[in-house]
Amino acid sequence: MRKYLALLLIVNITIRGYAQPVKKAVFVIVDGIAADVIEKQPTPFLDAIAKKGGYTKAHVGGEKDGYSQTPTISAVGYNSLLTGTWVNKHNVWGNDIKAPNYNYHTIFRFFEEQYPQKKTAVFSSWEDNRTKLVGEHLPATGNLKLDYRFDGLELDTINYPHDKKRDFMHRIDEAVIDKATATIKNEAPDLSWVYLEYTDDMGHMYGDSPEFYRAVDLMDKQMGRLWEAIEHRRKKFKEDWVIYITTDHGRDARTGKGHGGQSDRERSTWMVTNAKGLNDHFKKGTPGIVDIMPSIANFLGLRIPRNRLMEIDGISLTGPLSATSPNAILENGKLNITWKAAGKGDAKIWVTTTNKFKEGGEDEYTLMATVPVQSQRAVVDVTNLPSSFYKIVIETPDNFLNRWVIVK
């Protein structure tokens, strides 16, 4: 009997030793910092995080002059990250957030549906991020409920009186970081979003200036505190944490005060992460803000339903990819579909002429061709499928790509 109990003890210890650490994810949006600024200003804390994973230039704005061209405006960028889609799908065109299309789920909704027992959090210097974009407690988001929330301080003009220099916004960012770090250290939510505004305020007021660069330095120190909290959890509790830090837009080239357009600098952003297994899309490409959501989903083991995977514009920044960079044009009744091969296997080409998904419905796709991924091209005859709109999905062994063709 003693031998049996001893054996059970050894087995139990062995199983614990091989148990996978609990995975936790944090993503951070620090507002309005173009890539050239983050690259020329000293950011030792961001650099320390990047040494664990990587840094890359990135972009917002969708496809310039294409159907997915997306305003380089704050809330628009936030929702592109949250949903992994561009504005032609998520439908947030400005900071008024008039009519988000909640049929394109956020990372929080996917996570809540698959892991209702796990904990989610939003720490934000702008309340609308939670109430309108994430859509907490809204019927349209399935009455999604977060476990931890800290926001709305911009509405508290007693404790945070609005001064002309907008120093109050820095104080709010500080309170947000204090709450985020304390909650991560003590409660360790499984999925958290941290949003800080002050850098964008200084950009709008002063443009490319010492005041703006000082705000970047303050932000870097805040990221150091957040990273310290994550490292505390990782070392003490042996948890597996990933963090993605990015910005929502760049700034205009002339003054650095404006944004919203499609100039190179307004579209130019960046990403810092400690993620392991970063692929060539991250290392050699210029990924989009839409790629962060599927990367976090990949890390957390989310199983996104097939019909929703077919709509997501982003692709994972970690792990294997079979194909990237999809394109499609209609010529003489044929769809010429191209991509860049990143792996092997077959590419299945699915086509539909409807977009019922945006209304909450289902599109009926037809498998039009199966070709080797390495061919990087498929020609699909659609003369018997005349339409002014085609939605194309390229299904490969490791990832989905999608394109629209709109006949004007």
Automatic annotation (TrEMBL):
InterPro entries: Alkaline_phosphatase_core_sf (IPR017850), Phosphodiest/P_Trfase (IPR002591). GO terms for molecular function: hydrolase activity. It comes from the Bacteria. This is Nucleotide pyrophosphatase. Pfam families: Phosphodiest.
